[in-house]
Amino acid sequence: MKKILFVCLGNICRSPLAEGLMTDKIVKSNMEDQFKIDSCGTADYHIGELPDERTCENALKNGLELKQRARQFEPADFNRFDHILVMDNANKMKVIGLASSEEHLHKVQLMRDFETESNLQGSDVPDPYYGGTEGFQNVYNILDRCTDNLLNYHLQAIEN
Ligand code: 4NP
């Protein structure tokens, strides 16, 4: 069982979408028994809330329904999960600041390290919260690509 956690700031825009996309791909691959998927935010602003309605509308336009509630990252997540994918460098620093061992640190990666094109690796999934609606589709496209590559990475690890 691979346990994967997606992390952003508020857990209402980027990471719930990454969770939804990854879960959908796992279900469609009939691999539900091999994965546990969750998401959270480093901040406490939106605990208990549904994803941002612009995120939900954009996801629905692409055929994906999001209904999970926001929660905050906590140090125990380092033990609950094997792979922690953070949406941007600022939040990666926050997560790393809560790590208490080398083993924890090794679990943390940037979501866009799973971009196909090497010039995009290491960059931030842009925060769409204060921008226009086009930002939400841009985030969708980025996360659709990166979750494809992330799933393939884990499927290969399972096969080998
Ligand atoms: P997220 O987006 O980190 O992708 O969920 C944000 C959500 C809320 C806020 C900022 C970013 N906020 O400042 O409340």
UniProtKB/TrEMBL annotation:
Sequence intervals crossing the membrane: none
Keywords: Hydrolase, Protein phosphatase
Record-linked SUPFAM superfamilies: Phosphotyrosine protein phosphatases I
UniProt-listed Enzyme Commission number(s): 3.1.3.48
Domain of life from the UniProt record: Bacteria
InterPro entries in the record: LMW_PTPase, Ptyr_pPase, Ptyr_pPase_sf, Tyr_phospatase_low_mol_wt
Domain Phosphotyrosine protein phosphatase I: 2-153
Family matches, as PANTHER family: LOW MOLECULAR WEIGHT PHOSPHOTYROSINE PROTEIN PHOSPHATASE (PTHR11717:SF7), LOW MOLECULAR WEIGHT PROTEIN TYROSINE PHOSPHATASE (PTHR11717)
Family: Belongs to the low molecular weight phosphotyrosine protein phosphatase family.
Protein name as catalogued: protein-tyrosine-phosphatase
